[in-house]
Amino acid sequence: xxxxxxxxxxxxxxxxxxxxxxxxxxxxxxxxxxxxxxxxxxxxxxxxxxxxxxxxxxxxxxxxxxxxxxxxxxxxxxxxxxxxxxxxxxxxxxxxxxxxxxxxxxxxxxxxxxxxxxxxxxxxxxxxxxxxxxxxxxxxxxxxxxxxxxxxxxxxxxxx
Length: 160
Description:
Elements: H1 5-8, E1 9-10, H2 14-23, E2 33-38, E3 42-46, E4 52-56, E5 61-66, H3 69-78, H4 80-87, H5 89-97, E6 106-110, E7 126-130, H6 131-146
Antiparallel strand pairs: 1-2, 2-3, 3-4, 4-5, 6-7
Helix pairs in contact: 2-6
């Protein structure tokens, strides 16, 4: 997988990392350090206790994935099924084949968020968007969704 890392992962620019940390502070309140981000909307962060957590910006869910950054790196090297789940290289290949290739500072976003029943990690539901829109913008959407009861019906209106 090492040859395709540039297609499936990236690291935040410092200003985007700060904006992302602020935007997600409602869910991850203590300071954290970004380790690596998935082009399909996941970010891996190290928390103050050194644990590594995965935040999926498509679903707004956070999960502990490793006891430390060293353990996380070992998992990436030795558990290809988990790395595939987190970074979705086959999906990225299909997105590229469909002409959806992010440039520097871009990643993938969702037309319909995977947190909804209709939202899928699928070529037809994904588009290229600035990293800040996916990682910062989705924080506000998920904060609002988190305040609703389960099974609520929502209509998302995007305004400029």
